[in-house]
Write a structure and sequence with these properties.
Oligomer: heterodimer
Structural class of chain B: alpha/beta
Mean pLDDT of chain A: 91
CATH superfamily of the largest domain in chain B: Type I PLP-dependent aspartate aminotransferase-like (Major domain)
Structural class of chain A: alpha/beta
CATH architecture of the largest domain in chain A: 3-Layer(aba) Sandwich
CATH architecture of the largest domain in chain B: 3-Layer(aba) Sandwich
CATH topology of the largest domain in chain A: Aspartate Aminotransferase, domain 2
Number of strands of chain B: 13
Radius of gyration of chain B: 24 Å
Distance between the termini of chain A: 52 Å
Strand order of the largest sheet of chain A: 4-10-9-8-7-5-6
Order of helices and strands of chain B: HHHEHHHEHEHEHEHEHEEHHHEEHEEEHH
Radius of gyration of chain A: 22 Å
CATH class of the largest domain in chain B: Alpha Beta
Largest sheet of chain A: 7 strands, mixed
Distance between the termini of chain B: 57 Å
CATH topology of the largest domain in chain B: Aspartate Aminotransferase, domain 2
Number of helices of chain A: 18
Helix content of chain B: 40-55%
Largest sheet of chain B: 7 strands, mixed
CATH class of the largest domain in chain A: Alpha Beta
Number of domains of chain B: 2
Number of domains of chain A: 2
Strand content of chain B: 5-15%
Strand order of the largest sheet of chain B: 2-8-7-6-5-3-4
Number of helices of chain B: 17
Mean pLDDT of chain B: 89
Low-confidence stretches of chain B: 1-10, 469-499
């Protein structure tokens, strides 16, 4: 309709992507252990359903928070009327401390620099409105979260220019990739306002290495641009490495309270770490007063419900709970990831070695008919419609290499995961490729394990050397 | 901050225009009242001489009913022992369609708030971050940067932010005046529309709040019908913000645009042009819960707004609770009736108290405020400078935070919006007394401070004032006798006492 805005008529919402189409198929035929055992299993949704019991038992022990009371007195009226866009001070304090705890208390977060938002969806869009004019660009390493096309670009008019990462080095960000992206933006006549990374990465499930973080900070320093670090998965780190935040790097490089630190912004949310996406709790953290001020005003368009702020401020202020939760969450995620990885291995499928996130980045290149995105889409359709698993094809994440898929593992029961793996194994073995694989599976797995080890060795290393091609 | 902008030849570091301009409207002097209030907030016992907040259109009159319901329905909370079995499903639920039960309950409530004269389709209910989010979203759906929406003035001050700031949409006001009680007419809209089109503006639609903020008046059904016909003829959109729908306390029934859509023949209304914005912040007094709704008769708009709702979904915890509460028909029926009653009483008490100070308000039958006429107290008639001066006096001397008409883009100086539903009875009583005291003192001062130019007018007025003064003093004596001005001693028949 000509009468409507171009936002209605364009595809800027990004929902025609296969990422969302898979969801729609799932909605038509959702798996249920009893009611629909042949239905589609949802493995395209990065949810954390592993630790609700911990929160539920906390609720049972904390009736005041549960029933909108403070010290036994109802504060319903206060909450009903509280719409101050500065947010509840006790809640922001609790958020700041929780963020510090996730980072091993190595860095501090000032509650006054936190701006609440309706989920990180809203937080990311708000930052774009603050930092970019329509037509300005942000550089994003590929593969990236498909929702960014909507969140960063749709209503803001900003552009995304990809920083191409490849499997040759475990999809890590390199200096040359950064420079290439920057130049590409210029070729397209776009002004680069900054770089946005998700750390730990979605869809890779890996935390950025210190080398990459240093590279990023040096890059934005030299180009005088911004860095947004979406650390929504920071509490899902389960590898034995510690999560390194961009804030750690600023501290270690002695850049705190400098002009550069004003251009580094962190986005956070409770949707993944605490598994509470329904509650819409997102946050922007910035050292730039102007951004905090502007973003705070913009938060009017998506404030966090006061009853939710109150509940979560009580939850997160309980330090005994938060430390137990973080530890248990990581334990359960690790065990679940292992289950997926070994299940895939027995089907002759490997993943990028991951140490965080709610998903694995799965290598199905060997199952493609040809090394093309058409073949990837064909494979995806087979997996969705025949194997009845909704997984996310790499192309929906703007991956430059066909054949990679994101497969989630924390949004279902163990039994459902096992069933999904069984279905996948059956499917793989039924294909020509699969039959070949099972014949030489022993050899293949041996060489795959070598690859995995070398990836691991590279990841832990702090040296600047460029990885060998493998 | 300055260094940020100066630093670096490369302009990459500079923030966006949106982040650095004033289009959010918050640097306006109108926030002076708020700032003054924040520094010295009134409290009946702890700070009885502080500033009373009468600039906040909140509805605090029926929160007890909601509180009681929540207490009696622990299952409606996912956190109580009775409701926690739902916790994980609800905490996990982020589908931007919203909980089906929530949409059904909202549709149910919206229908009841309109006396059951119209029903709403739950499939067209789209969530947003309060009406603030809803209004911005509908702009994003209907207009591109540079497009224009006509908005009758006086209008809600924050529309300048909500409709324009990040969307780039322009507002062209349709000025309404006291000559016809600020009523919006089709002629006025037509005139503003033609003028805008002649100046090569791309007018995408008309938006107004009904019942009106700040006027508290409702648009009669015939005019509403004619406006619907007007937008249909000219193929532009109509957005009606019905956020105050259930705050009607007297007079005619509120005619929602939904009713008009139902009544009119399809040749007279193109429903693809009709959109409603709603919220629970005023009708239910729950601004903290951030429940905004976009309701459109246009399928593409519903679809687009729903995708955009990702930027401001209602917390599932809140959706769940309200789904339960608003599908409790006996609660809703009683709430709507009681709310209307209490608002009516409060409005009556307040306007009566103002009348005793010879202050008139625009006759209104809805809203959480009155549109107070203080033109006679302006030092210089028809001067916005005088209005601001008077406003500062009201804040600093009378110690009330009220909102000057100019902050609502009113074209006539001297009108003020004064909220009456965001405080308890005692506080209202204190506010009224302060107003009455101020007016009686001011009637003397007006005669003293008159400039030479005004002397003639003043002489004529002085005769009127003297008459007024003696009447005022008489009425004050009566007030004193009635015990209305003495705290703690309330005549049982006083209208200020809630029965």
């Amino acid at each position: 309709m000509k009468q409507l805005s171009t936002k209605v008529t364009s595809n800027g919402h990004g929902q025609d992507s296969s990422y969302f189409l898979g969801w729609e198929e799932y909605e038509k035929n959702p798996y249920d252990e009893i009611k629909n055992p042949n239905g589609m299993i949802q493995m395209g949704l990065a949810e954390n359903q592993l630790c609700f019991d911990l929160i539920e038992s906390w609720l049972a022990k904390n009736p005041d928070a549960a029933s909108l009371k403070r010290k036994g007195q109802s504060i319903f009226k206060e909450l009903a009327l509280f719409q101050d866009y500065h947010g509840m001070p006790e809640f922001k304090k609790a958020m700041a401390e929780f963020m510090e705890e996730i980072r091993g208390n190595r860095v501090t977060f000032d509650p006054k620099k936190i701006v609440l938002a309706a989920g990180s969806t809203s937080a990311n869009e708000t930052l774009m409105f603050c930092l970019a004019e329509p037509g300005d660009a942000f550089l994003l390493p590929t593969p990236y979260y498909p929702g960014f096309d909507r969140d960063l670009k749709w209503r803001t008019g900003a552009e995304i220019v990809p920083i191409h990462c490849s499997s040759s080095n475990g999809f890590q960000i390199t200096e040359s990739a950064l420079q290439q992206a920057y130049q590409q933006a210029h070729k397209l006549g776009l002004k680069v306002k900054g770089v946005l990374v998700t750390n730990p990465s979605n869809p890779l499930g890996t935390a950025l290495t210190r080398r990459e973080l240093n590279l990023l900070v040096d890059f934005i320093t030299s180009k005088n641009i911004h860095l947004i670090s979406d650390e929504i998965y920071s509490g899902t780190m389960f590898g034995f490495e510690q999560f390194i935040s961009v804030m750690d790097v600023l501290k270690d490089k002695k850049l705190e309270n400098t002009e550069v630190s004003k251009r580094v912004h962190v986005v956070y949310s409770l949707s993944k770490d605490l598994g509470l996406p329904g509650f819409r709790v997102g946050a922007i953290y910035s050292n730039d007063d102007m951004i905090v001020s502007a973003a705070t005003k913009m938060s009017s368009f998506g404030l966090v419900s006061s009853q939710t702020q109150y509940l979560l401020s009580a939850l997160l202020s309980d330090k005994k709970f938060t430390s137990q939760y973080l530890e248990e969450n990581q334990k359960r995620l690790k065990s679940r990831q292992k289950r997926l990885v070994s299940g895939l291995e027995s089907a002759g499928i490997t993943c990028l070695r991951s140490n965080a996130g709610l998903f694995c980045w799965v290598d199905m290149r060997h199952l493609l008919d040809t090394n093309t995105f058409e073949a990837e889409l064909d494979l995806w359709k087979k997996i969705v419609y025949n194997v009845k698993l909704n997984i996310s094809p790499g192309s929906s994440c703007h991956c430059t290499e066909p054949g990679w898929f994101r497969v989630c593992f924390a949004n279902m029961s163990e039994d459902t995961l096992d069933l999904a793996l069984k279905r996948l194994k059956t499917f793989v073995e039924s294909t020509d490729c699969g039959r070949m694989i099972s014949r030489s599976s022993h050899e293949r797995l041996k060489s795959l394990r070598k690859k995995t080890v070398s990836n691991w060795v590279f990841r832990v290393s702090w040296s600047d050397r460029v990885p060998d091609e493998r | 901050m300055g260094s940020l902008i100066k630093s670096g030849g490369v302009s990459g570091a500079i923030l966006s225009r949106i982040a650095t301009n004033d289009q959010h409207g918050e640097n306006s002097e109108y926030f002076d009242g708020w700032k003054a209030y924040d520094k010295d907030p009134f409290h009946l016992s702890r700070n009885p001489h502080g500033i009373i907040q009468m600039g906040l259109a909140e509805n605090q009159l029926c929160l007890d009913l909601i509180k009681d319901w929540i207490k009696e329905n622990p299952k409606a909370s996912v956190c109580t022992p009775e409701g926690v079995y739902q916790f994980s499903d609800i905490a996990n639920f982020q589908d931007y369609h919203g909980l089906k039960e929530f949409r059904q309950a909202i549709a149910n409530f919206m229908g009841k708030a309109r006396g059951g004269r119209v029903t709403f389709d739950p499939e067209r209910i789209v969530m947003s971050g309060g009406a603030t989010g809803a209004n911005e979203t509908i702009m994003f759906c209907l207009a591109d940067p540079g497009d224009v929406f006509l908005v009758p003035s006086p209008y809600y001050a924050a529309f300048d932010r909500d409709l324009r700031w990040r969307t780039g949409v322009e507002i062209v006001p349709v000025h309404c005046s006291s000559s016809n009680n600020f009523k919006l007419t089709v002629e006025a809209v037509e005139w503003a529309y033609k003028k805008a089109v002649q100046s090569n503006k791309n007018v995408k639609g008309l938006l107004f709040t009904n019942p009106s903020n700040p006027l508290g008046t409702i648009l009669d059904k015939d005019t509403l019908k004619n406006l619907v016909r007007f937008v249909t003829r000219n193929n532009i959109h109509l957005v009606v913000d019905e956020i105050y729908a259930a705050t009607v306390f007297a007079g005619e029934n509120f005619a929602s645009v939904a009713e008009v859509v139902k009544d009119l023949d399809s040749s007279e209304v193109n429903v693809d042009l009709i959109h409603i914005v709603y919220s629970l912040s005023k009708d239910m007094g729950l601004p903290g819960f951030r429940v905004g709704i976009v309701y459109s008769y246009n399928d593409s708009v519903v679809s687009c707004a729903r995708k955009m709702s990702s930027f401001g979904l209602v917390s599932s915890q809140t959706q769940f609770m309200l789904a339960s509460m608003l599908s409790d028909d006996s609660f809703v029926d009683n709430f709507l009736m009681e709310s209307s009653k209490r608002l009516g009483i409060r409005h009556g008490v307040f306007t009566l108290g103002l009348k005793k100070a010879d202050i008139n308000c625009l006759i209104s039958t809805a809203g959480l405020f009155v549109w107070m006429d203080l033109r006679h107290l302006l030092r210089v008639r028809n001067s916005f400078e005088s209005e601001i001066e008077l406003w500062h006096i009201i804040i600093d001397k009378v110690k009330l935070n009220v909102s000057p008409g100019s902050s609502f883009q009113c074209t006539e100086p001297g009108w003020f919006r004064v909220c009456f539903a965001n405080m308890d009875d005692d506080t209202l009583h204190v506010a009224l007394r302060r107003i009455q005291d101020f007016v009686s003192k001011n009637s003397n001062k007006t005669a003293e401070k008159a400039s030479d130019n005004d002397k003639l007018i003043q002489n004529n007025n002085a005769k009127k004032q003297k008459w007024k003064q003696s009447n005022l003093r008489l009425s004050f004596r009566r007030l004193y006798e009635d015990g209305l001005s003495s705290p703690g001693i309330m005549s049982p028949h006083s209208p200020l006492l809630r029965t």
